[in-house]
């Protein structure tokens, strides 16, 4: 289990307590929630994966397989949980139960407040719908104040990919596809381009419809969201450009807010301003999918599309910038971001550090540094350290740190982030 030790330890501590525990674990699809919980469980427990219909009946039937006397218990949540008092009960994809019956939140409130009061019961609720799970925890929710612990399971950092025994170059290529999602990282093989092009020829490849599954966890209608994401991935980054691209009547801002809420997209404002935002796809797998898969679905179905090395490495230039920002945060303990105003943009900036990222070999580092200094002067920034990143340099010079793949390899193989 790569870089989940803290979460695993916290969960085991809760499960070993003598108190009633209501533990909420949420995070995007494929992030490893179920794997985490199943690794934390010890002894007798009930694990139930919720579905879209008939959850009460299905849960009771599942529980009866372990506790046969349950067949004499009434088919209602309170009665079942009363019988299962002091047990560990895991309900995966709890949002399905909420969608089937919104009153289930009030029912579980009653179970916690009355049915299981004073017990050593452990209830773990998991969910892949970030919006539904956050609403379930919100102030107006019946479950507000009942949880004893919650864990939002987030993506792994780039540097964590070393735990999957990947070289730096392989890790960069796979990170462009998988981000920090363990399921996708484990699925990918090296050489990456050989694997993905072969994978796309498989009639049952998970890659083809993975985004559809992910978006359906959050939205009833996914068509407009997919068009918005395709537009942003193709460079339509302002509100006006996105609106013109998708050509729908009505306001597009509400769609963007919902995508931003679940962490699929982000937005950046011009330096020193709070208007004129540019949107970008924040999630690597989503960015990959809308860059290579969605625009080419017909050719993929015909088996005639392949991602070329040139186009994939053009795509990786943006991914490389994200890795460079992680380097700055890890090495200098500084939060770095892209800053821009009009047509002047700096790839990495934070707390007196400015950096430029070039996903190329034979980069003239001295020239890039000169250009970076000019940008800093134009934007009026205060900088005391310059860093130039590249795959490789043909020339370096000037008062700056020059980070090539060899130096990145040392950082990547070093201690944990």
Gist of the model:
The chain is α/β, with parallel strands linked by helices and 417 residues long. Helix content is 46%, strand content 16%. It is elongated.
Structural class: alpha/beta
Based on the structure given, which CATH architecture of the largest domain is correct? 3-Layer(aba) Sandwich
Number of helices: 19
CATH level-four homologous superfamily name of the largest domain: P-loop containing nucleotide triphosphate hydrolases
The overall strand count is 14
Largest sheet entry: 5 strands, parallel
Main sheet: which strands, in order across?
Answer: 2-3-4-1-5
Oligomeric composition of the shown chains: single chain
CATH secondary-structure class of the largest domain? Alpha Beta
At CATH level 3, the topology of the largest domain is: Rossmann fold
Whole-number tally of structural domains: 3
Distance between the ends:
16 Å
Strand-residue proportion: 15-25%
Helicity level, as a percent range? 40-55%
**Please, what is the average pLDDT?**
95
Low-pLDDT stretches: none
Specify the overall morphology.
elongated
Radius of gyration, CA atoms, in whole angstroms:
24 Å
Structure characterization notes:
The chain has about 425 residues and is α/β, with parallel strands linked by helices. It folds into three domains: about 5-150, P-loop containing nucleotide triphosphate hydrolases (Rossmann fold); about 205-305, Arc Repressor Mutant, subunit A, CATH 1.10.10.10; about 310-410. Helices cover about 45% and strands about 15% of the residues. The chain has 19 helices and 14 strands. It has helices at about 5-15, 35-40, 55-65, 75-85, 95-100, 105-115, 130-135, 170-180, 180-185, 190-200, 205-215, 225-235, 240-245, 255-260, 285-295, 295-300, 310-330, 365-380, 405-410; strands spanning about 20-25, 45-50, 90, 120-125, 150, 265-270, 280, 335-340, 345-350, 355-360, 365, 385-390, 395, 400-405. It has a five-stranded parallel β-sheet with strand order 2-3-4-1-5, with helices on both faces. Strands 8-9-10-12-14 form a five-stranded mixed β-sheet, with helices on both faces. Strand 8 (about 335-340) and strand 9 form a beta hairpin. Helix 1 crosses helix 2 (about 35-40) and helix 4 (about 75-85) packs parallel to helix 6. The radius of gyration is 24 Å and the shape is elongated. The two termini are about 15 Å apart. The mean pLDDT is about 95.
């Amino acid at each position: 289990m790569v870089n989940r030790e803290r979460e695993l330890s916290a969960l085991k501590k809760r499960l070993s307590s003598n108190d009633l525990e209501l533990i909420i674990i949420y995070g995007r699809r494929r992030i490893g929630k179920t794997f985490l919980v199943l690794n934390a469980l010890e002894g007798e427990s009930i694990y139930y994966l919720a579905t879209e219909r008939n959850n009460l009946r299905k849960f009771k039937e599942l529980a009866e397989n372990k506790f046969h006397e349950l067949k004499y218990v009434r088919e209602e949540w309170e009665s079942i949980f009363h019988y299962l008092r002091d047990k560990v009960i895991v309900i995966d994809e709890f949002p399905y139960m909420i969608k089937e019956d919104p009153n289930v939140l009030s029912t579980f409130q009653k179970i916690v407040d009355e049915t299981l009061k004073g017990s050593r019961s452990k209830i773990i609720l998991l969910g892949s719908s970030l919006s539904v799970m956050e609403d379930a925890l919100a102030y107006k929710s019946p479950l507000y104040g009942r949880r004893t612990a919650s864990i939002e399971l987030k993506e792994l950092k780039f540097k964590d990919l070393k735990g999957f025994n990947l070289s730096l170059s392989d890790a960069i290529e796979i990170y462009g596809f998988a981000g920090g999602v363990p399921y996708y990282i484990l699925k990918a093989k090296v050489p990456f381009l050989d694997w993905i092009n072969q994978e796309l020829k498989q009639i049952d490849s998970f890659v083809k419809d993975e985004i559809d599954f992910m978006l359906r966890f959050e939205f009833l209608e996914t068509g407009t969201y997919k068009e918005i994401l395709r537009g942003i991935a193709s460079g339509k980054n302002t509100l006006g450009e996105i609106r013109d691209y998708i050509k729908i009547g009505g306001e597009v801002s509400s769609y963007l807010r919902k995508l931003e809420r679940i962490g699929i997209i982000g937005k950046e404002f011009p330096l020193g301003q709070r208007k004129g935002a540019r949107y970008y796809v924040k999630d690597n797998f989503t960015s990959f999918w809308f860059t290579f898969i969605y625009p080419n679905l017909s050719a993929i179905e015909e088996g005639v599309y392949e991602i070329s090395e040139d186009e994939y490495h053009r795509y990786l230039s943006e991914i490389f910038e994200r890795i460079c920002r992680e380097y700055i945060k890890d090495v200098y303990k500084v939060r770095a971001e892209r800053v821009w105003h009009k047509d002047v943009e700096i790839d990495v900036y934070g707390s007196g550090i400015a950096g430029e990222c070039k996903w190329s070999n034979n980069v003239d580092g001295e020239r890039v540094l000169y250009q970076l200094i000019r940008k800093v002067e134009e934007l009026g920034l205060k900088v005391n350290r310059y860093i130039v990143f590249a795959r490789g340099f043909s020339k370096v010079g000037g008062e700056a740190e020059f980070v090539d793949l060899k130096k990145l390899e040392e950082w990547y193989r070093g201690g944990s982030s």
